[in-house]
Structure formats: structure tokens, C-alpha cells
């Protein structure tokens, strides 16, 4: 029951699924995984999702690179996932905390993405103010889209959006409250975005 | 900032996206929505996701019906979503709490689904024991698949799986700890399931 033991490891995890809305979905997913350098993270794929674990910077770098590679096919793709820290489970991936800091994926191609996120700071009586603060940060960063039930809309260029997500995730946890969860849903190349000024 | 005010309304919400991995994704999504009776829930769709809100039983009934209708096309579909209660935001949907209890979608077609879920009982110092208990419940109900980082695997017939999710969601909250979040990722008609004994 490794998922039920919370610890103090700084290892960050992202359990996600990438959904290309095309008959060629296998090809798009495999291509995106192949074009991404995932050597800095521990990775495991099952029949529902993929999990990557390692240093925060590498986890966000790999998550963005896989998404961007899939996006560049032009296909409508969705990314759904949960970032977690402070509940490391077993220590199988802890060796990845010794990886060098240099980011291995550097593609700067611009890509509009529309997304939604929610922060869940666990066992923190003051969690609502943490959420307020990070939503305010999105507004300051120029990536806030709209308020909505149970989430906040975040959009813009994929690099700005992932930068915000990493910054929010970094800031929403503390030594006193280590267990943090952040869900992200992202839509790219959607027919709903055609002709949108948001592009 | 309606998402930032937690309250005591019993209204349940489910923010989700349905991803048919086919070029005909628009047709599959629209078909599933059209064939489902959604009159017992408040519903809003944006460019990333759809949110339904109402009585717990109706929210789970509608979520399952939309998923089952999409699954019956035979296409590989994924469902990703977050159930929430105790953080109702504005009261726009509260009128739906007056709906009759009778469930409006009754399709009993069997369908194998593989899924993963995570429970996030907010501001509850004892949250890990809540999670333990509900994972044990999955084992008792015969829908537990496997342990994994950050989630638990749940599979079986769609009706048994949704019954478990509703039961877990009902039991993981209390009057003392009203704000509960549950994420669910589901994969249906996946090529990964072909020939699997799990079917
Ligand atoms: Ca607490």
C-alpha cells in the first residue's frame, strides 16, 4: 500500500494521460514519448495512465515536452494529470533525485493551450488562502482565463502556462504542509479554439 | 472568485472531460450527451471540460450514462474528472437539490472499464485513514485492481465501478470534514485491454 504512506522526500510525481482525438492516437502518443528525453525521470506506464517521478524541474520539463510534441502534430490533444509531492510512496524513484539539474528538453516552439487547474494542499487549515494566492499569481503572470466551479482557467503559450504551474506548485507547499496535489486539464488544437482571439 | 468560498451545501459537482480517441470525436461526444438525460443536473460546458452539479445520485448517474453511451460506440474513450462536495461556490445550481430522487438513466449494458482514483479529504488530519478505509472497501467490493503511486486501480463492469465510486465518495466525507475531492481517470475499449483476462 505504498500510496498510503506520506513522507518527507522532495520527489515530485505527475500521473497523467495524453489523449489525441484521432484514429492515429497510438502513433501520436508513441511519437511524443519517443521525441521526449525522459532519462531524468522515473517512468511507468499502465493501461490507464503514465507516471513520471523525479526532481520537480525535470518532471515539469518532461510533462511539457511530451505535450508539446503531441501538439505539434496538429491533432486535437488533451492532457489530464495530477502533480503530487509529499506523499512519495515507496522510494523506487528516489535515485532520480541525484540527476543533474540541466533540463533535457528545450523546444521553444510556441503553442496556445487552454487549461484548468486546482490545488489541493492537504491537511492545511489555511488551504483556501494558499489557493487564493496562487490564483492571484496567475493573474499577475497574465495566464489567468476565468473563474469556474472547482477549478480556475489558465491559458496562453504552453511555456508560460507550464512556468506558472511549476511556480504555483512550488509555492503552494511548505515544510509544515508537505503534501500537495495539483490537478491540470489541458486542451490543445481544439475546434473550440478556432478563430478565437485567445489564439 | 466563487471557487474559493467553501460552504455547507450538499450539492455535488463533477468536472470532467470525455476523450474519444477517434477522428469522429465531436460526433461521439455530442451523441453521448444527447442520449443521456441530463435534466436532473445543472450543466455547463467550456472549451476544456464540462461540469455537472446536483444531488449526488444524479451526478453519478449522469456521469456513468454519458460514459456508457460513448463506450457503446466501440471507440477507445477516456474519462477524466474530479468529483467535489463541500466547496459549492455560488448557489446557481442549488435549485437542482429539489429534483426528485428517481434516476433518469437506466441502461444496464455491461462494459469493462479500467480506472484509477484518488481521494482528497480536505483539512482533515486523519485523511490517510479515510483513504485506507475506502481502498479496503474497493477490495471488499471486488473492483480493486492494483496499488500504484498517487492513485489506486479500480476495474470491472462500469456499473460496479461507478457504484463503488459513489459509495466511497459518500463515505469519505463527514459533517466535520465536508470538503471532499475525488479524481477519477477511466479507460474504455483500450487496445491495452485486448485479450486481457481482465475483460
Ligand atoms: Ca487540517
Helix and strand sequence of chain A: EHEEHEEHEEHE
Number of H- or I-type helical stretches of chain A: 4
Mean of residue pLDDT of chain A?
A: 92
- The helix content of chain A is 25-40%
Largest interface: A-B, 62 and 62 residues
CATH architecture of chain A: 2-Layer Sandwich
Oligomeric state: homodimer
Whole-number tally of structural domains of chain A: 1
In this entry the ligands are: calcium ion
> Rounded to an integer, what's the Rg of chain A over CA atoms?
16 Å
CATH class of chain A: Alpha Beta
Poorly predicted parts of chain A:
none
Alpha-carbon distance between the termini of chain A?
A: 44 Å
GO molecular function (chains A, B): thiamine binding
Protein name (chains A, B): YKOF-related Family
Pfam family, one (chains A, B): Ykof
Domain Thiamin/hydroxymethyl pyrimidine-binding YkoF putative (chains A, B): 11-90, 114-192
Amino acid at each position: 500500500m505504498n500510496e498510503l504512506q506520506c513522507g518527507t522526500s522532495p520527489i515530485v510525481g505527475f500521473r497523467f494521460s495524453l489523449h489525441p482525438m484521432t484514429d492515429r492516437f497510438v502513433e501520436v502518443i508513441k511519437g511524443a514519448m519517443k521525441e521526449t528525453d525522459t532519462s531524468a525521470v522515473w517512468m511507468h506506464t499502465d493501461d490507464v495512465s503514465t507516471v513520471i517521478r523525479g526532481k520537480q524541474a525535470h518532471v515539469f520539463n518532461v510533462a511539457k515536452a511530451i505535450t508539446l510534441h503531441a501538439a505539434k502534430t496538429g491533432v486535437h490533444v488533451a492532457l489530464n494529470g495530477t502533480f503530487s509531492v509529499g506523499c512519495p510512496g515507496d522510494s523506487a524513484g528516489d535515485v532520480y533525485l541525484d540527476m543533474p539539474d540541466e533540463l533535457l528538453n528545450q523546444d521553444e516552439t510556441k503553442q496556445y493551450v487552454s487549461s484548468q487547474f486546482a490545488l489541493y494542499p492537504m491537511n492545511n487549515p489555511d488551504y483556501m488562502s494558499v489557493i487564493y494566492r496562487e490564483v492571484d499569481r496567475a493573474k499577475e503572470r497574465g495566464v489567468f482565463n476565468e473563474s469556474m466551479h472547482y477549478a480556475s482557467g489558465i491559458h496562453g503559450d504552453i511555456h508560460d502556462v507550464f512556468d506558472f504551474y511549476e511556480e504555483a506548485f512550488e509555492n503552494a507547499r511548505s515544510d509544515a504542509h508537505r503534501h500537495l496535489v495539483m490537478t491540470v486539464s489541458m486542451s490543445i488544437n481544439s475546434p473550440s479554439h478556432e478563430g478565437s482571439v485567445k489564439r
